[in-house]
TrEMBL record:
Pfam families: Chitin_bind_4
Name of the protein in question: Cuticle protein
Cellular component GO terms, alphabetical: extracellular matrix; extracellular space
MF-aspect GO terms: structural constituent of cuticle
Superkingdom as given in the UniProt entry: Eukaryota
Residues passing through the membrane, by range: none
Record organism: Euphydryas editha
Keywords assigned: Cuticle, Signal
InterPro entries named among the record's database cross-references: CHIT_BIND_RR_consensus (IPR031311), Insect_cuticle (IPR000618), Insect_Cuticle_Struc_Prot (IPR051217)
């Protein structure tokens, strides 16, 4: 009911007239202009040709490490030819033994490995760095603060 009264009062001229009047404005409107929808161009994506698959892939690699400072000695090599992987690796174990693993793998027989362990039972040579001198300082001592006889209320978040 109140909304209807406000609408009537706002629509009736002179009810709330304080000695000034709004200027009379005359609007002219142009006819609507037709706007076409944006034109979307479709561009065909380029066709990507798959690379030909090699029916008989092959690879070969090898590496080796011989570090006299750390005593790290190892090597490995592997080849794939006619669907069969042949490879081997060797390393010097911490007790001085040489471990050599020779393996083959294919789709028919799976993975097969032969492990050989040869050599002495002495530790592998490892270079030891000279000892360094370290300055030692006493650790700081933490002293607890005295406990107050009263406790303050815990202050949390204001919205809790």
């Amino acid at each position: 009911m109140l909304c209807c009264a406000c609408a009537v009062a706002a629509a009736a001229p002179g009810i709330y007239d304080y000695g000034y009047a709004a200027p009379a404005i005359s609007h002219t409107y142009a006819a609507p202009v037709a706007v076409s929808a944006p034109i979307i161009k479709t561009v065909a994506a380029p066709v990507v040709q798959a690379e030909p698959v090699d029916p008989n892939p092959a690879y070969s690699y090898a590496y080796g490490v011989a570090d006299p400072h750390t005593g790290d000695h190892k090597d490995a090599q592997e080849t794939l030819q006619n669907g069969v992987v042949h490879g081997s690796y060797s390393l010097v174990e911490p007790d001085g033994h040489l471990r050599k693993v020779t393996y083959t793998a294919d789709k028919i027989n799976g993975f097969n490995a032969v492990v050989e362990r040869t050599g002495g039972t002495h530790a592998a040579p490892v270079a030891i760095a000279a000892p360094t001198h370290v300055a030692v300082a006493p650790a700081p001592v933490a002293i607890a603060a005295p406990v107050a006889k009263y406790s303050l209320p815990a202050i949390g978040h204001p919205w809790r």
